[in-house]
Every structure is written in structure tokens, then in C-alpha cells.
Write a structure and sequence with these properties.
- The structure holds three protein chains of three kinds.
- Helices cover about 70% and strands about 0% of the residues of chain A.
- Chain A folds into three domains: about 1-145; about 150-580, no CATH class; about 585-660.
- Chain A is mainly α.
- Chain A has 25 helices and four strands.
- By secondary structure, chain B is mainly alpha-helical.
- Among the domains of chain B are: about 1-80, Four Helix Bundle (Hemerythrin (Met), subunit A); about 140-175.
- Classes of the chains: A mainly alpha, B mainly alpha, C mainly alpha.
- Chains in contact: A-B, A-C, B-C.
- Chains B and C meet through helix 1, helix 2, helix 3, helix 4 and helix 5 of B and helix 1, helix 2 and helix 3 of C.
């Protein structure tokens, strides 16, 4: 049976977006100046309501599957009716993977919408903001629920668009920096999108379909039979390229720190919890494809680990509060890809979920801090805020604790599972494991450095000018919910050594079955496995590192900037490189952006203005001059008319006489 | 002998035609045209079209040329001495226009001649060598019969045309209240 | 007369060309009108030549002469109207030079 109500889940936020857009149109026409104080339903309330219903529907769908039914499908819509081979049918499928992701997107999204309704109050573009935000959720849901790569790609592009719109939301502030950041995000994403398209084309020409079910079938047959291995590897790498763009992996991560120019709810929703996880979603969805290629898996894991290291180390030296969180996000995304590359699909999704909880929490908390500090973002200018913002402080600390992987919190379990899987694979993966562990240490350090610099120590700001205050309940309640989830969210993925079922793993088993089958086949029946002893050791190691580095980070920074300054004086070059994110962005600007800009300027001035315009205007000019000459013909002189007529007759006569007409 | 007459008449026709075009004095032009008509009438006669020759002399020479001369004399355009008010008509004042006109004339003329030459071989030689009936080729009875039966419509149309022409000419040439004719050289005759 | 038809036609062509030359070249309106008459006569001659040719083998053709008669009538009409215009023009401008009426806006 078909469940057409599934279309409602993405459709309701779309409706919300349209209604908010209408309200914004009213603002533009000057009929109202405070869109958040509308009589009746305000834009914020509309958007929140849409999210709430979408969340409820997601829960309903989630509750229906499990047990016998492992997925719900809606009726399909023939977007591109077939015939000549290209037959694109779109349907919404709520299976265990998409259902889980949908819960995260709508649930965390709902909390962030509520927060934003308070955060964005007073902004002239209030309704526009919610229009964009709801539109984003629609696109993300399309991405998740689509049963077809084309539908996913539509959502993929859509979230990229909304990301652009929302990053550049305050385009007229700060010297145009948000607009520039939005453009950068879009362009870098585009590179990834090109890879995505190529991968899609390759899969279509090889397997004749872009429907996930059919693709998985085809890939399974090919992989188990050992055929098409080159094609599968290439397709996997191309799709991973697409994922790199969206999920900000090296070398396409430079847009994410810049994206912090957007409003904080945007950073929380798009650049922490949802859009950046779409790359991971894609890999999990097509796990057989990636499982089939050793090369692809290793590359994914290596790039993930490298990205985690680069970003984690850069976060150590960031002064912008949101910047620390941005690099942290990139780093954690690297962990997710490390998991995928190790074949730990479930661990990756687990980390997606826990990361969504605590990173969204951290961003929203940061927003609360920045709001209370009157838009001050530099942690060097904060300090001792725990007295002024108690609720923000407590929730933020919960988030930092989860991020740093303190034992028994959500982040601990997900991160540990990833590292355990990586260790279990062995061989070259041990290097990656080492990188992961080192980065975990860095993570703990910078998380608690952040907490210490912001909330502890003496106040490094002018208390006359700045009066930090706690945020209203509409903002702190979502923080508290997220804090709770960050603390206990690990329960869905407890390790086997605890002798409890791994809830998430069991739940997702049908989704990753084929991928695991292919992995097993390729490794000759041996899936990576850890003995219980080793697992306990790793758990202990992880806890020790997390606690140790957290302690270090906290104590060195809780009394002020001494640690920061001494590091800068002691290792100036290292400090500068880390602060600059290893100089990668600068290298891009020098090596790629500037030459392209020069080329563009050349084309604009020489080719466009001179040649093309010259040709077109030249033609017009020639026509005008020709017309002026011809005008001399109509001079009002009868005799000249007569002459021309006679001349014409003479010509015809001559032609007849000489040639014969 | 008869053919020789034709060629003489043809020569006269061409010479007088040139005279029409080149004459400085419009009276000379009109009179040359009259001579041209006369030579053409001779040619018609030689070709066997007596009625047409008569019509040519009567209508063209007797009516049209007379009308021309009327107007020329009325407007005093023929004076050899050209003083005030008379137009000065140097022949090839406007070189470009004259050159163009001559070129067109030459082109049309040569085109026609070439066409004639090319088509000449298609003209069937008459077997009887242009023998002529007694009463000529345009015998009046046959002509009249054709005119009033087959060509009755053009005939009536032509009469309407003549009527309207007469009316039109009267309107056009009507003396306006304050217009005067060209003053005589002495400047009298003002209304 | 046993002159070949093409000679008659050639004469007509020459007369026509002369008429054309005069029509385009001269500025005196009277001469222009006489050039027109010349052209019409050349056309008449062509008709006569054709009629002569077609009647030569025995059938008397009256179509040629009838056409000539109509041409003469029309030429007369046209000459009359043209001369009336000359008179009207002379009244306005005291001249019969084409240059005086060269511009159509006059």
C-alpha cells in the first residue's frame, strides 16, 4: 500500500515557507514593520508550527516501521517519464535510515526554530529568515526521503541554495563579508556537485537506473561477482567528492568557517546538524557501492582523518567563538568519514546523531552568549560569564562535555565506536586510528579551553559598556532539551561489551546488510572484529585521554589568557599556521581564486566589452550608417525618383536581353 | 523603291526625334515632333495602314501638336530672347542627372535591339512577302466592326476618359482669382 | 514594302531610347511632354510592325490598328492634362523648369 501522506512531511515546511514569504512581502510593502509581532500568527509561529507537525508526522512514520514493515513508500510521480531509457520516478520512502535522519532533522530543527523565533526578534528580515529556514528543511527532507538519486540531488542543490541564502542573510553588514561567504560556500559546493553529477551519470550508464533499490541490487551483483570494479571505484570516489563539498572535508572545507557570518540558528541547523551530514547520509545510503572498493574506503577514511586533524588543530588557536565551533564541526565530520571508510556505517550515523545534539546545543549556546554580549564574538574579550548567564553556562558545558568525549556521555560512545572500528581493521588503518586518537585529545583540549575562556576567569570586557544577560526562555528551553539529549543520547549505541543491545545497530541492520555482505565477501569472510579485552582497553584509553586533556585545557585557560599568549610567544610560527587553518584557504585564494578573477576581468573587459559588444554595436552602427546613406534616396526630388525607376527598368531590360529572365 | 522610301522616312524620323530632345527652344522641339509624326505617318502608309496614317496626321499633328503650340504661345515660352522670368534651360546643367538619363536610354535601347536581334530568327518569314490587299491592312469595315463589337468596352472607357480629361483640364487650367498669367515682357497686363 | 520586321522594330527601339533620354535629361516641361509623346509613338510603331507581320499571310489583323487608335486617344488625353498642369504650374511659379517643382513638398 502506498503512504501518500509521506509527501506532507516535506510539503508542510514548504507551505510554511510560502506563508512566511507572503509576510515578508507585506513587510517590504511597508504594511508592517515588526513582523515578529504580527496580530494573529507571526512568521516565527508559522514556521515553528510547520516544523512541529512535520516532526509529529516523522514520529508517526517512525513508529510504523520496525518489525515486519521496514519501510513505508508513497506513490511515485513520474517526473521524467521513460521511454528512451531515462525514466525518473520520484517517491518518498521512509525506511529505517531516512526515518532516523528525519527525526533528527525535524526534531532538532524544531528546537532550533523555537530558539530562532526568539533570537531573530527585532530583525527586519524576520519573516524572510523563517521562509528560508523552512525552505531549507523542505529541501533536506526531500534529500532524505527520496527513493531516487535524482530526487536526492534536487534536495542536495536545494539545501545548497538555502545555505547560500541564509549565510548571506545579513548581506549588507560587515562590509559585505556575509555575501562573500555565501558565494564562497556556493562555489565550493558546486565543485562537489559536479563530482556528484558525474558519479550519478556513471552509475546510471552502468546500472541503468537511479533508484536506490535497483542500484543496490545491481551493485551487489556486480560486487559479489567481481565485475565492474573499476567503475564502482570511480563512482564511489566521485560521489565521495560530492560529499566532500557538502560535508566540508579536505580540500573543500574552507567555506564552513566563513559560513559563520550567517545568523547563529543557521550555523546550528545547517552547518552542524543537517546539511553537512547529507554527505554522510549519501554514503550510508549507497553503502554497497563504497563497500565494493578498497581504494575508495581507504581514501575516505584517510581524508576524514586528515580533515579531523587539520580542523581540530586549527580550533586550538581560534579566537572567534563560532569559529572554534566551525572548525570543531569540520573535525567531527572528519570522524564520521573515518567511520565510513572503516566500514562502520552505523557508527557514522551514531556520531551524526550525537553530534547533531551537542553541536546544535553549542551553537545555540554560543548564540546566546554572543547575543548577551552584544554581538561580541572574541573569546579573548569574554570571561566570567557563568555568573551572568547561568542557564546558558550549564547547557553549554554539557555540550562541551559531550563534544570532548567525557565518559558515558553521548559523544563518548559514538567517538569510541568509530575509533574501535578503525583499530579493528588494522594494517594501515592503525595510522588513521592514531590520528583519530590524537585529534580526540585536541578536541577535549579545545572544548574545555573554550568553556574556560568564555565562562570562567575574570571579566575581560568593559562592564560599563557591555552588560551580559541571560537569554529569554524561548531560547534557553531548547538549550536545556538539547543538553539532556547530549547527556543521555549515547544510550542508543552502547557498546557490545556492556552486554546490552546496540539499539541503533540493530535498527539499521537491513540498511547496511548489503554493504557488510560485500565487505565480508571481499575480505574473504573476515569482518574486522575486536576482542572484548581490546575493547575495554580502548574504552579506558579513550576515557583517560578525554579526561586528561579536558582537565589540561580547562585549567590552563580558566584564569585568563596566559596560556594563549605564552604559546604564541613560544611557538609563533606554529601558532600562526594553526590560527590560519594551515594556510589552506590562503593558498586557494592565491592559486585559484586570483587567477580566475584575473581571467574573468580579462574576459569581461577584452572579450565581452571590446569584442562582443564591439561586434554587436558595430553591426548596429553599420545598420544605422547604411540607413543614413539610404535616406539620401528619399530626397523628395521627383527627377531622382524617376531616374531610379528608369534605372531599374533598364537593368531588367538588359538582364532579359542578355541572359533571359 | 518602296523600301528605300522607308529607310529615308526612318532616317528623318530619327533625326527629328533627336531634334525634339535637343532643341533649346520648346517651339523648335514641338515642331520637330510634328515632323517626326509626319515621317511616321509615311511609314504607316508604306506598311499598308492607311487609316492609321490618317489618324496619325489628324489627331497627333492636327490636335495634339496644335494644343502644344497653343500652350507654348499662350505662356510665351518660345521667345528666342530670354529675359526676365523666362527659364534658362542649359541642356546638361545637371551632369549627374543627364548622365543617368542617357545611361538609362542607352541601356533600354540596347536591350531592345539585342532582344530584336535575338528574336529575329523566330520571326516567320511571310510566304507572300508582305503582299498587301487592295484596301490596305486596316480596312475600315473590319476595323469598325471590331471596334464596336469586340472592343466596345475599351471604346466606351476611352470616351469616359476623354470626358474626364476635358473636365480635369478645365479645372486645372481655370484662372484663379488673384493669379495672373505670366506678365508680358513689358510687365503690363496685370489684372 | 518588304522591309524585314526587325528593321521596323529597331526603328521603334531607337525612337523609344531617344524619348527616354529626353525624358530624363531635359528640364523644360514642354520638352519632357514631347519626349513622352515620342515614346508613345515608338510604341505605336511596334504595334504596326506586329500587325503587319501577322497580317502578312492573309489574315487581316485589326487588333494592332485598334490598339494604335486607343494609344493615340490616351496620348491625346495625357498631353492635354499635362499641358493643363503646365499652365497651372506657370501660374504659380512663372516658370516651366522642372527644378521649380523638383521638391515634392512644394
Amino acid at each position: 500500500m502506498t503512504h501518500d501522506w509521506l509527501w506532507l512531511i516535506p510539503a508542510l515546511p514548504l507551505l510554511g515557507s510560502l506563508l512566511c514569504g507572503i509576510q515578508h512581502a507585506q513587510v517590504l510593502r511597508g504594511r508592517t514593520t515588526r513582523p515578529d509581532l504580527q496580530p494573529g500568527i507571526g512568521a516565527g509561529a508559522t514556521a515553528v508550527a510547520a516544523m512541529a507537525v512535520a516532526f509529529a508526522l516523522s514520529i508517526m512514520g517512525f513508529a510504523k516501521i520496525g518489525g515486519e514493515t521496514s519501510f513505508l513508500e508513497s506513490s511515485s510521480w513520474a517526473w521524467i517519464p521513460g521511454g528512451g531509457g531515462l525514466d525518473i520516478q520520484l517517491a518518498m520512502v521512509l525506511d529505517r535510515l531516512s526515518g532516523t535522519m528525519a527525526l533528527v532533522v525535524t526534531g532538532v530543527g524544531l528546537l532550533i526554530h523555537i530558539y530562532a523565533a526568539g533570537y531573530m526578534r527585532g530583525d527586519a528580515g524576520y519573516a524572510k529568515f523563517f521562509a528560508f529556514l523552512n525552505l531549507f528543511v523542505t529541501m533536506m527532507l526531500l534529500l532524505i526521503f527520496s527513493d531516487n538519486m535524482v530526487g536526492t540531488f534536487v534536495g542536495w542543490e536545494g539545501v545548497g541554495l538555502c545555505s547560500y541564502l541564509l549565510i548571506g542573510f545579513w548581506y549588507d553588514r560587515d562590509g559585505g563579508k556575509p555575501g562573500h561567504a555565501a558565494q564562497k560556500a556556493f562555489v565550493v559546493n558546486r565543485i562537489g556537485d559536479a563530482c556528484f553529477l558525474l558519479g550519478m551519470f556513471l552509475l546510471f550508464t552502468t546500472f541503468g537506473s537511479l533508484n536506490y533499490g535497483e542500484l543496490v541490487e545491481g551493485i551487489r551483483t556486480a560486487a559479489l561477482g567481481g565485475e565492474h570494479s573499476g567503475t564502482l571505484a570511480l563512482a564511489a570516489l566521485l560521489l565521495f567528492g560530492g560529499a566532500c563539498g557538502k560535508s566540508a572535508q579536505f580540500p573543500l572545507f574552507t567555506w564552513l568557517p566563513d559560513a559563520m557570518a550567517g545568523p547563529t540558528p543557521v550555523s546550528a541547523l545547517i552547518h552542524a546538524a543537517t546539511m553537512v551530514t547529507s554527505g554522510i547520509y549519501l554514503v550510508i545510503r549507497l553503502n554497497p557501492l563504497f563497500a565494493a572498493s578498497e581504494l575508495a574506503l581507504f581514501l575516505i577514511a584517510a581524508i576524514g582523518a586528515a580533515t579531523a586533524l587539520i580542523a581540530g588543530s586549527s580550533a586550538l588557536r581560534q579566537r572567534d567563538l563560532k569559529g572554534i565551533l566551525a572548525y570543531s564541526t569540520v573535525s567531527q565530520l572528519g570522524y564520521m568519514f573515518l567511520a565510513l571508510g572503516s566500514g562502520a556505517w552505523v557508527a557514522a550515523l551514531f556520531h551524526v546523531i550525537t553530534h547533531a545534539f551537542f553541536k546544535a546545543l553549542l551553537f545555540l549556546g554560543a548564540g546566546s552568549v554572543i547575543h548577551g554580549m552584544h554581538e561580541e564574538k572574541d573569546v579573548h574579550k569574554m570571561g566570567g560569564l557563568r555568573r551572568h548567564m547561568p542557564r546558558t553556562f550549564v547547557t553549554f558545558t554539557c555540550g562541551a562535555a559531550a563534544l570532548s568525549g567525557l565518559p558515558l556521555l553521548s559523544g563518548f560512545f559514538s567517538k569510541d565506536e568509530i575509533l574501535a572500528h578503525t583499530f579493528a581493521v588494522g594494517g594501515a588503518w592503525w595510522i588513521l586510528w592514531g590520528v583519530g586518537v590524537f585529534t580526540a585529545a585536541l578536541t577535549a583540549y579545545y572544548s574545555w579551553r573554550m568553556v574556560a575562556l568564555v565562562f570562567f576567569g575574570e571579566e575581560r570586557f568593559d562592564s560599563q559598556a557591555v552588560h551580559p544577560h541571560e537569554s529569554p526562555s524561548i531560547m534557553t528551553v531548547p538549550l536545556m532539551v538539547l543538553a539532556g539529549l547530549s547527556l543521555v543520547g549515547g544510550a542508543i549505541g552502547l557498546p557490545a561489551v556492556f552486554h546490552v543491545p546496540h539499539l541503533l545497530g540493530d535498527w539499521l541492520e537491513p540498511v547496511v546488510r548489503t554493504g557488510n555482505e560485500i565487505l565480508e565477501h571481499r575480505s574473504g569472510g573476515h569482518l574486522p572484529h575486536l576482542s572484548h579485552t581490546l575493547e575495554w582497553i580502548l574504552l579506558g584509553l579513550g576515557s583517560a585521554i578525554a579526561l586528561g586533556c579536558a582537565h589540561l585545557g580547562f585549567h590552563r585557560n580558566k584564569n585568563g589568557l596566559d596560556a594563549e599568549n605564552s604559546f604564541e610567544q613560544g611557538h609563533p610560527k606554529l601558532a600562526a599556521t594553526l590560527g590560519d587553518a594551515w594556510g589552506i584557504d590562503r593558498a586557494y585564494y592565491a592559486g585559484i581564486v586570483t587567477p580566475v578573477k584575473i581571467l574573468a576581468a580579462f574576459i569581461a573587459v577584452v572579450i565581452d566589452a571590446l569584442c562582443i559588444d564591439g561586434a554587436v554595436n558595430g553591426l548596429a552602427d553599420a545598420a544605422k550608417r547604411g540607413g543614413l546613406r539610404l535616406r539620401a534616396l528619399a530626397n523628395g526630388q521627383v527627377s531622382s525618383y524617376g531616374l531610379w525607376m528608369g534605372g531599374g527598368a533598364a537593368v531588367i531590360a538588359l538582364l532579359w536581353a542578355l541572359g533571359g529572365i | 523603291m518602296v523600301n528605300l522610301l522607308f529607310y529615308i522616312a526612318a532616317l528623318v524620323a530619327v533625326l527629328t526625334a533627336v531634334g525634339v530632345v535637343l532643341a533649346r527652344n520648346p517651339v523648335i522641339s514641338v515642331l520637330s515632333l510634328l515632323s517626326c509624326f509626319a515621317s511616321l505617318a509615311v511609314i504607316y502608309l508604306l506598311a499598308g495602314f492607311q487609316f492609321l496614317a490618317a489618324i496619325q496626321i489628324l489627331v497627333y499633328g492636327g490636335a495634339i501638336m496644335v494644343l502644344f503650340l497653343f500652350v507654348v504661345m499662350l505662356l510665351n515660352l518660345g521667345g528666342l530672347s530670354q529675359e526676365d522670368g523666362e527659364q534658362d534651360d542649359p541642356l546638361f546643367h545637371d551632369r549627374r542627372r543627364s548622365g543617368g538619363g542617357l545611361a538609362i536610354a542607352v541601356a533600354l535601347g540596347s536591350a531592345s535591339l539585342i532582344g530584336i536581334l535575338r528574336g529575329a530568327r523566330h520571326l516567320a518569314e511571310p510566304t507572300n512577302g508582305f503582299a498587301m490587299p487592295e484596301e490596305g491592312l486596316d480596312a475600315l469595315p473590319a476595323l469598325a466592326e471590331a471596334m464596336f463589337t469586340r472592343y466596345s468596352l475599351p471604346f466606351e472607357a476611352a470616351s469616359v476618359l476623354l470626358l474626364s480629361a476635358a473636365v480635369g483640364v478645365m479645372v486645372l487650367a481655370k484662372r484663379q482669382r488673384h493669379d495672373g498669367l505670366a506678365p508680358a515682357p513689358s510687365g503690363e497686363d496685370r489684372p | 514594302m518588304t522591309v524585314p520586321t526587325e528593321h521596323l522594330l529597331a526603328l521603334a527601339a531607337i525612337l523609344f531610347a531617344i524619348g527616354v533620354a529626353g525624358f530624363f535629361t531635359r528640364r523644360n516641361l514642354i520638352v519632357v511632354l514631347t519626349s513622352i509623346e515620342l515614346m508613345l509613338n515608338a510604341a505605336n510603331l511596334t504595334f504596326v510592325a506586329g500587325a503587319r507581320l501577322h497580317s502578312a499571310n492573309g489574315g487581316v489583323q485589326v487588333d494592332g490598328p485598334i490598339f494604335v487608335i486607343f494609344v493615340v486617344a490616351v496620348a491625346a488625353v495625357e498631353a492635354a492634362v499635362g499641358l493643363a498642369l503646365v499652365i497651372a504650374l506657370y501660374r504659380r511659379k512663372q516658370t516651366v523648369s522642372l527644378d521649380a517643382i523638383a521638391r515634392m513638398e512644394d
